[in-house]
Each structure stands twice: as C-alpha cells, then as structure tokens.
Amino acid sequence: MLELSYENEDNALVRPFVERGYRTAPLLYVNGRLVPPSLSSQARPNQTLLSFLRSTLGLTGTKLGCGEGGCGACTVVLSRHCPRRKRAVHRSVNACLLPVLACDGTMITTVEGVGSWKNGAAGEDNLHPVQRAMVDMHGSQCGFCTPGIIMAMYGLFAPDDEGGGGPPRVSHLEEHLDGNLCRCTGYRPIWDAARSLCVDDVEGAAVKGPCGVSCRECPEREVCQMDCNLRDKEGAGKNGLVHSCTKSKVAEFRKVVEAKHGSDWWKKPNDMFPKELLPTTENAAIHEQLAKPLVVVDKSIHNGGTWFQPHTLEELLDLFREYAPAEKGGLKMVVGNTEVGIETKFKHAVYNRMVHPMESIHLLYEVFETESHFHVGACSSLSALQQFCHGLARANAATDVLHDRSLLKKRTAKPIHDMLRWFASTQIRNVACLGGNLATASPISDMNPLLASMNGRIVLASRPVSDGGIERREIPVKDFFTGYRTVDKKDIEVIERVDIPVVSEFEYVAPFKQARRREDDISIVTSGMRMRLIPLEHGWAIADVSIAFGGMAPKTVMASKTMAAMLGKAFEESTFVEARAVLQDEFRMPEDVPGGQAEYRLTLACSFLYKFYLHCAVELKKDVEASASKGIFPAVPLIPSDEESAIGGFVSAPKPSLCGSQSFPAPKVATGLEGTHLAAVSESPKDASKLDSVGQPATHASAPLHCTGEAAYTDDIPAPENLLHGSLILASKCHASIASIDITPALSIPGVFGAYTHQDIERLGGDNRMGPILLDDVAFLPIGVKVEFVGQVLGIVVGVSQEIAEKGARAVAVEYGEEEAGKAIVSIEDAIKAGSFWTDFRHEMIRGGDVDEILNQTEVDGMPLVVVEGSIRSGGQEHFYLEPNSTLAIPSESGTNLTIYASTQAPTKTQDFCARVTNTPAARVVVRMKRMGGGFGGKETRSVFSSVAAAVAAKCSNRPVRLTLNRDTDMSITGGRHAFVSYYRAGAVVHDDGTVKLHALDVKLYNNGGCKFDLTGPVMDRALFHVDNCYNWPNFHSVGTPCKTSQPPHTAFRGFGGPQGMVITEHIMDHLAFKCSISGDKLRRDVSIYLNPLNYAFGAILCKPNSLVHLLYQNMYTLQDCTPFGMRFGDGFTGKWNVPSMYDQLYISLDVPGRRAAATAFNAKNKWLKRGIALIPTKFGIAFTAKYMNQGGALVHLYTDGTVLVSHGGTEMGQGLHTKVCQVAAQAFGIPLDDVYVNDSSTDKVANTIPSAASMSTDLYGMATLDACRKILKRIQPIRDLLPPNAKLSEVAKKAFYERIDLSAHGFFALDNDRCGYDWNKERPEDFPPDLPENSWKGHPFNYFTQGVALAEVEIDVLTGNHKTLSADLIVDVGSSINPAIDIGQIEGAFIQGMGWSTIEEVVYADDDHTWIRPRAKVFTTGPGNYKIPCFNDVPERFNVSLLENADNPFAVHSSKAVGEPPFFLGCSVFFAIKDAVTAARGDNAGYFEFRMPATSERIRMACGDVISSECIGSEQAKFQAKGSF
What we know:
Layout: H1 5-19, E1 28-30, E2 33-34, H2 37-40, H3 49-56, E3 75-82, E4 87-94, E5 106-109, H4 111-114, H5 129-136, H6 146-157, H7 170-176, H8 188-195, H9 227-234, E6 241-245, H10 246-261, H11 268-272, H12 284-290, E7 294-297, E8 306-309, H13 313-323, E9 332-333, H14 340-346, E10 353-355, H15 362-365, E11 367-369, E12 373-377, H16 382-394, H17 405-421, H18 426-429, H19 434-440, H20 447-453, E13 457-462, E14 471-476, H21 477-480, E15 481-483, E16 486-487, E17 494-501, E18 507-515, E19 523-535, E20 540-550, E21 557-558, H22 560-566, H23 573-587, H24 598-626, E22 659-665, H25 674-677, H26 703-708, E23 724-730, E24 736-742, H27 744-747, E25 752-757, H28 758-764, E26 769-770, E27 777-778, E28 793-799, H29 802-811, E29 813-819, H30 828-834, E30 843-847, H31 851-855, E31 859-860, E32 863-874, E33 886-892, E34 897-902, H32 907-918, E35 925-929, H33 944-957, E36 961-964, H34 967-973, E37 980-990, E38 996-1008, H35 1016-1026, E39 1035-1043, H36 1058-1075, H37 1080-1085, E40 1087-1091, E41 1108-1113, H38 1139-1149, H39 1152-1165, ...
Parallel strand pairs: 1-5, 8-10, 9-10, 22-50, 23-36, 34-35, 38-39, 44-45, 49-50
Antiparallel strand pairs: 1-2, 3-4, 3-5, 6-22, 7-8, 11-12, 12-17, 13-14, 13-17, 15-16, 18-19, 19-20, 20-21, 23-28, 24-29, 25-28, 26-27, 30-39, 31-32, 32-37, 33-34, 33-36, 35-46, 37-38, 40-41, 42-48, 43-44, 43-47, 48-49
Helix pairs in contact: 5-8, 16-17, 22-23, 23-24, 24-46, 32-33, 35-36, 40-41, 43-44
C-alpha cells in the first residue's frame, strides 16, 4: 500500500505522541452502542461522519443530499456529557461536514436509532412519536429528506435548557427548524407534525376566516353566512366536506401520542445515552482514556493526513509552533469543519494535518460575562453564544433606568442574538465557532461586521518557545481582516477568544442583512452599525459611530469616510442624507464586480443606514422617556408615522406561526373511464366493516419506511462484492474542441481501477449517440469534437472508493484546441442575434383574423381598441430533487448481461441507451427502480447519461459500478427548466358601458434549450398550448422558437412549459388592465350578473356562489368556447369547466374587494412596507402531446393467501403513484389496502414503458392495473360462485389455483385516438366541417383539463426587497380524488415549488450579465449555497387548500384527475401579488413596468423606484433591470 511521504513521517511520530500520553483510536458510540474498535479504528482524519456511517457502519438512513450542510438530509444528533451542566446535551449536526474523529467520546444517534418499522408478534410498530406524527400527518412524499427532518425534530425535542427541560414550545420550534429542505411537501404537513408534539397551546394554528376569527370558535357560528363558515358546517354532514386544520389535527394527535407513548417520550435521548460516558466511579477507566489527547494517522491509500486532538492549550499551541508554518507542512484547526469541509470537498483543498481542540480546554469553549465585556471562547459554538445572548436579551432589567447594567447587557446581547438567528442553520450553529468565522475572513460573513462595529477585540495566543509561557496579543476585529480571506494572524497563533464591550448609555447597535432567502442563506449585504449619542443644548449629537459592511468589498470593511462625515454632527435626518451621499461615493462598485448586483448592494447599504437612523431615533425616544427622572433632555427627532414601517425588519422580528386548513369532499368510490372502457365484472365483495380503499386519505405506502430510514434508494443498496465507484470526467470549458485526453495520471493513483472514454465505447462496438427525440447527444465526447457546454461528459474513472474515483477524474489531463471565433451563445438574446434555433421545431398557432392588421387599428365597431406591447422574461429553475442522480450497474454472465439500478423516471429509456451504448441486447439489460428521492421531470431524460456511463464502466471492467453524482455536478450538467423570453402585442376593446373585452393577441415565444434538443421542442409546444391560460382571445397568433445555446441541455420540469406560457398571459392581462385603467380582477372576471330573488349583492361576503342564476364572462372561457388549438369546453369534450365558478367562490368567500381595500389602507399608512394581492386561475391539459406515449401496462399477481402484487410501468418519486395504484387494486379485489404491494418498477416485469411524466401516471397505470384486476376477477368468478358469499379472497384464490386458473394478468390501457395527439403541420382538409372549431383538424392534444384558482397576499419591505407571503388560499378541481391526502400534498408541494420558481430561485450563468463568472457559459448556481429553494420560513403564514366538490371526471380512472403538475402555476400568484405590492410602492404615476421573473429581493427592491434606489442606479433608472440569465 503506497503512502505519501508526509504520512510516513507522521506515522513515525505516532510513537513519540503515544509516549506523551496520546491515544491512537477514537471512542465512538452509535445509537447507544459502542462501535467496535475494529471499525472505529478505520475512521480517517479527512473522513466525514456521513461517510463513516454509510460506508463503514452501513447505516444508510442518513442521506447525502448536498455535501455542504445546506439541505439537512444528513442530519444526526450528537450527544455528549457536559461537565458544566452535569448531564448529556444533544445537538443536531450535519454529518456531511462534521469529521468523524470530532465525534470522539460522544454518541451519534441516526434515524435508525430513533425507531423502526418492524412488526412484532402483535403487529405493533416501533415508531417514535416524531416518526408517527410525520406518517400520520402526511409529512413525507419522496422520503429522501425525511430522515434528516426526523433527526432535526428529534434533536429539538431532546431535553434542553432552552426548551425548558421538555418538549419545546412552538416558538422554539419555529426559531430552530431552519436547517432542512424539502422539495415535495410544501412543508405545511411537516409543520403540523412538529407542532403536534409541542407542549403549549396552538391558538395561532387555528385557521381564521376573513373576519379574523376561527370559524369553529366564532360566537356567531350558527348565524354567520360567510362562505367559509357555511362550507365548514357542511362538513359535519355525511355527504359534506371533510375539513381539518392545523389546530384540530394537533389536538387530535396529542391524544394518540399520550396513549401510545406516555408523557416522557421526549426523554429518549437521555435514556439512550451510554452509561459508560457518564462520569461515575464505575466508568473511571473509560474517562481516563477519554481525557487523553488523540492522534490518528491515515495509512490508507486515501491519504487522509493526520488528526491531532490536544487536551490542553499548551499542547495546542505547541502543535501550532511545530507544524503550522508553511515550511513545516501546515496545520489546519478544525472545530465544526463547516468551512474546511466545503474547501476540501468543492475546492479540493488538501490539509495534511488537522487539529481539533478538546473541550477540556475551557478557555476556548467558555462564554461568560464580566461587568464590562462579553468573553466568547473562540471554539464555543455559535449556538452556545446564541443561547447565552438569548438569556440576557430576554431577561428583565432590574429597573427601566438606562444606566442599569442588565439593561445595557441586554442591548449588547440582542443584536448578536438576532444576527445569529439567521446565521446558517441550527445544525451549522451547533458546531461552527466564532473563531473559525473570524479566521475564515469571509467577505460576506454576518458576524464579522457586527463584531467590528461593536469594537470587538480578538485575543490571539501563541507559545513561541516549547518551555516558555503563553504569549497573548490583542487586535481590534475591524483591523483583523487584511484582504480577501486573509487576516492578521501569525502561523503559530491561535484565536483564543473574542471580547465584546458592553454598550454605554445612549449607545445603540443594530444588525442588518439581506439574502436571497431569509433562513440558512449567506448574505448579499450584511452590516453592523453602532452609534453613541450625547445630549447638547439644542439637540443630540453623534459622539461615536461605527459602521461595518460585509458584501461591499473583498473583506469586512469599515465605512470610514461615511463615519467621518457623521462624527460630531447633529443627530437628525439631514445628517444621514448627507452621509448617504458619502456612502455611495465610498462604495460604488463596477458592473462586473465579483458577485454582481452592484447597484442593489449599494442600495442595500444606503437603506440599512436609513433604517439605522430610524432605529436609533426610536430607541433614543424610549430612553429619554425612561430617564426623565434624571433631568431634562433635548428633543428627539420626530419620525413621521408612515416612516415607522422602515424600523426593524425580519432580522429582529419573531418568526411567524404557520397554519393551514385542508378540505375535500367526503370520500366516495366514483366510476370514471373504466365504466365505458373496461369489461364489466363483479368486483369482490367487501367486508362491510372495512372502508373502501378508493377515495380514502391513506398515508403514503412507504411513509413509515421513509420516517425510519429503512426505505432504500439507489445509493443505499448494499455494496456488491468487488464494487467500484465512479466519477465522471467533465469538460472544464466549452466553445473549443477536445485535442487530447490523457488518462495516465489517473491510472497512476493507487486505488484507481480504470478510466473509460469514447474509445472504450468503440471497443465495445457500441453506439455513442443518445437523445430522447434527436440523437444529437453523445455518451462520451470524442476527441476532435467541439465541447458544447461546460461540464460535458468525456468519460468516467472508477476506483475502490468515491474519494479515489473523484481524485482520479480530476487527475485526467484534458487538452483543448483553440476557441472558436466569437463568443459562446449563452442567452436567448444571444441566440436571437446569432439565429441559433431549431427551426424544424418552430411551431405557429393562428386563430381568427390577421392579428397584425387588427392590432394596427384604433377602433373596432366604433369602440376604442387599446393596444399594449412589451416583453416578459421568466428564468430557469433547478430541479433540486434531494436525491442526486444515482446508478448501480451490475454485470453478470461474463459481462453479457447488465442489471441497472437507477434513480430514473424512464426505466425503458435507460434500458434502451444502456443497451445501445454498451452493444448489449435490450433483453439482457434489466433496469430496476424502487423509488426516487424526487424527480420533477429532471430524471425523465437527463438521468440516462449517468446510467449509461456506469453501464460502460461495468461492462468494460466486468465489475459492479456505482455512480452517484455530487450535488454540484448534478446541478452543473443535468439542465433544468427552460428560461423564456416573449414579445407580445395585445389588444382589448373598451365598450361603452366600461366593459373591456379581449380582442387580439400576437406573441412570440423563445426558450433556451441549451446545446442539445432533449425535450425543448415539446416544452415549447406545451407553452403554446397554455399561453391562453383561461382567457378567450378571438384573434390569436403565437409562434414558438426553440433556441440553441451553450448551456447544458434543458429538459422536463413540473409543468413542462405550461407555466412559462401562462405567465406570459397573466403579465399581458396586467398590462392591458393598467392601460385600460381598470383592475386586473375586473379584466380577468368581468361578468354580467343576474341574481335570484334573494338579491344578494355580488361580491358581498353574504353571497354564496350557488345563489347566482347566470354569469356571462367577458374574458374567461365559458362552456362551448374553444381554445386556439381547437378544443371545446363542455361535458362531452373536456369535462366540466369549473374555473369561473372557482374564481368567484374565492373572490366572494375571501372578500377580495375588502382585502384589496384593507391592503390599500395599509399601504397608505406605511411608506416602506407594501402589501399586494393576486387572484390567479389555471387550466392544465392532461395527456402526453406525443400520441404514442399515452399508453401503460401493468402486471398483477394474486397469491393464494389473498395478497396482491402489482407491477406497472410507472415509477414512484414521491407523488404517491404506488399508493394510488394499490388503492385501485384493493378496491377491485375488496381487500385491505395493506394486502396490496408494489415492489419496484422493472423492465423485465413490464416492458416498453413510458416515462412517468405529464401527470399521466395514475391515469395510465390505474387503468392498466384495474384492467388486469378485472381479468383475474373474471377468471375466478366461477370459483367464487361455488363458495359461500362471505368467502375470503384467499379461499377463492387457493381453490382457483388448484383448479389450474391463471391468477396473473397483464393489463393495458391507451387513451382513445380522438382524445390525444396533435399534428402541428397538418393542413385543413377540404371537407372539414365548418361548424367545428378552428385548428381542431390537427388533433385533440389533451384528454381533459385539471383546473384551479389561487389567492395570495404578500408583504414586501421596500428598503430591502424582502418579502413574506401572508396567506395563500387554493381551490383545485382534481375530479373525484382517489386519495385526497396525497392530492392535497401534491397541490401544496407544487404551489411552493411554483412560488420558488417565480420568487427566490434564480439560475445564474456566466453570460453578458454576469461577466465576473468564468469560464463563459458555466452555471454558477450549483448547490444550496447559491441556489435557494423555499424553506420552512417561506411557507405562507396561512395556507389553505380545498378540493372542489361535485367534480367527477368521466375521462379517467375512478373519475379522478391528474394532480402533479397543474397546481404548480398557482404558486405564481405570489409573484403577481409581489408585483401588485411593487406597483403600490412605485405610485400611481410610475407607469407600467416589466417585472421579470423570478421576483428576487434584488428585483423587488430595485423596481420600487424610491429616492435611495434612484440615487444608486443613477441616470439609467428608467431603463434599469436587475441582471439575469435568460
């Protein structure tokens, strides 16, 4: 075994360290048990806890989601004995960052140790209450993030001082459940599960009506006629709605917990804590060993370096003196590893020696106060500092007198506490330390500017001489940072502590930050500001001021010139206005500044300064009033009431309580398409005591396994013998050809088995071409061919471990030819200029007259024609499925057969291309897919290339190969949602009575397809099919042009182009409404109304929707209207058209006019906070637009014990497909749901399958499964007739078996020819009937429409661009739901995902708008660190979802409707509500503006058009648009 020289040297030093009393192996406990020394001794210095748990211990419940501590999938709980508290303390941590050796002397609890889904003799489970709550409240969908969320909650519920020694209060939960992401659920059910275990009441969880009172607690409930109350009361009836809300669920579940688990269930972490780790006499020997320092030298081929763990400060300083200087090899200090872990994984930094101080070095870990200072040990966790400050900040001062020290300490502690609340996540804060934050010297650190502004001082310690004393040096924090990531610290010095002075009277400190997302996000700009005021005869003066910024320079920087301009000046607004001008000169940045957003960052700095002035003025007023007894003070500057809205912000505000309600029609078993398309058969009699399966809100079939970590994903499959791990060889640039690929350096690395490129595919005789529609892609790029995107796959390296394979891939030497002339085409505008299109797939849709001619008119029939013209851009979106792409390829029969375990939505496509590229017959390639950790379209086509790479390596090596992409690699090369740019002209006729009628639309759509066609054409087609949304344009013309660029191939994503098309329409509707001087609501739903004799006034909250006799919609489609592509609305064509009635139901029941009036009143009173409202409809066509794809098969086995196994062509990615299919089968056979099982999706069971996409899976596989069930039922009917009527299915099946009756059946379903397919190029036949809709001769692209409406209300902070969603109310038509709980979960998850796309999720490329990124065309947003999906704190504070009643759908199984994609667009209601709020901020005279998507904090802030942003933008303000990648 080859070892590096430094390792040999350190290995020789082990003996001297042992002689000095060092141990050489860690002591580890996992889930209450000692890890055997044979395993713990394998822990390496550079190995993360996650790697050790998964690869060494085989505990795969803990997941790798991102590798940077940003998603929480790897969360475990670390427990250690605390001598100060004399008990065990329990903290959640990120196992993907924490070094395993840092866990020495602790117990690690993984999800496997919390509870398990293993039935005992009586069928009882072993679920922990946290797990049970998540299962029962539908908190799991794909399940990949679930173990991490379970562990985060388990850690929060552990006994803790801050939590009060028991289960925490809801407010504690809301503060600290901030380190986990979920891409599926929308978080609401997880919140409900968490709240159900809290000890305090949940009054905030009660869902309130528009009046502000919970319907069920309203004293006027019996007489109240509000629609919300009437609908809720109807739910009490047998055939009414099933209604639940957060409060009712929480109260009900608490009874379950108490009955099953008692009242002490939260003490389990203490009960599990090993007695050996408690300091008792019996454990003296163990604690004597743990008191010794530790040294571990990695002698393996992983070159993991050396780990030191000293137990005294002198030892620590000696190690720094001996090894830290560069000439001696260097020594890196590691505490939480939250920064070093990022450097080693993503920047590939190598640290040969690492040192981790033991907690016995109290000076480094203590946080304490003296009369004049807070003293913070450099290694104390940020959580410890946060908790220390929390205790001081919430303590009541002895008096209200200003000079009371407790009050001054409270003022000192509060800004620190408030900033730490938003610093990373609880898991990070639990291990990260202040010293590491300072030493890292990040230019966007939150704490460094705050400490600098507070005059904090750093104490550095060193021991220059081995037998000498400790020398200490102090330096102000503000002087510590010397440049980018460099500090004033000698190699032999260690940061010992930070001293923070307590503020004095009339001294104020405030923290500020703005990020892309509030929780767990690095700042765009962060600041700490401090000011001390003194009273003068005629006012107050600034005696001292300190302003520090992060995000404004390559380091934490003081605003020296601004401070100088303020010092000694009067404390009044004019001083701050003058200072703002100085600040702008001091920090104005060039356009290409690293990080971009130059104008926004400057605007934020100036906005923070203004907020600080208001903060100080308010605090000064309080102090003057409280200190009146000390004498008479000068007057305090008065703050106008409307300016007070600028005070504070989210940094210091309490995190909101979140709640929601869900309602759905009473469960029923409806007959749908099967009534006309499948042979009638007598279904098995159902036990009268059992519920029907169809229609029931059953939990996800795999939910218990998700919650215990026992659900296996592709990367969890136990390693086969001789397993190799793969890492892709990727191109580092594009726009140039490959000159050569030298794999020799990789092969020279010990542990690398092989490296395979295009030449190896040729040796196999395989076909290198790939692509779902066009074979325009390749598996491995050949030499001499142009690289078309950064990250294109060149080959694969395989080795004995993931680390070795990655090291080998980086070692491959790739040479490039000269770059092609001109710059790479990156954006849509680049493509338009260059004419880079897939012209064969440009499609056009025309209806009515010549729109060009029409829109050039000024009148129609004597009435004015109002015409608007403009553009709208919507950005891309990263799928961010929590489980990265993963494949295990296993060869057999001397490599002639391949079994591929893949995380894919398309098993057959994966099979086809693995067979093609490896030259293996498809019959010898089996693809198996158990479950995915999310897909959302991203694993429909863009998962295939990674499976092919693994298959090539497996075939060439004849050994199993596992290839799991790192998060950054996955995001760099798999593509995402297509960005769109659209140009439009639209016209509406203004009638004499003020009615505005849509008249003509001309729109040109362009989408960014990346460098390969993939599914770009079909995505554009669906955008064209949805660009009308729910509105009737008599004259219509649209053209869709797919653009070819140098981005990675973009692909399917939930909605598949539909949302991009509908965004265009809604933008145009707003533009027309503005131009016509009417509200958007009026334009969207302008109606003529005729009422029944009750004479309810329309729009009044007393009016129920069913009291309306007739509605004539001016612009929304009505029955018998036709879409531009020729589909007619109506029962026999598309089913019920419910959008208008749903729109009115929300409009009336939620009192939209009243809500808008309230928002207007709020906006008038608040200059710097604005509210906005949007009511947005959607319709989404259900079917694959490619006709051949509308088919599906299933295989059903009935076993003689009466249980049923179903295999079908769909895949489970969290959408509940398997659960719904099981419900269909259980209903058919009349057996309990638990007796039906789906094992996996496999190409050797159901062949020639269609990808699980287009929301069609339940429609296809539910029908196919029912077809197979009915075939079996028909065969066994004669047997059933011979047996008693109450004979069990097992009895029938057993007798049928002995009668040699086949108990297996293959089912198949395909949509009728006349209900799917569309031929864009088909000319109108000469004999086409004139009474049929225009363009209907081309086909019928959709089977039906899933429909919905959403109302969203938001609030924006004009000065920062921060926004929060106050409420979201949705009503969705999903037919007669097979499983309403799953459908509501899909709606909530889709809504939040759509909200994310349209607000905070911004994909950034190296393009003309982002020249600071290199190389050109590289994607910058490659992980949770710089790409932000919604988190717990982003959920609407009130989130209500209803399923429409009486919405049976005759065109799908059991009268259901597809649900996965349609609600996605409803999330854009938040975007349009933000736009409404921005419009309010701009004022009535600002004119219409293009508000581009996503509505990031930058776009919100810079669109508001106030004086501060105008100053920072400069002369280009009128044309200014925040930069973006489109």
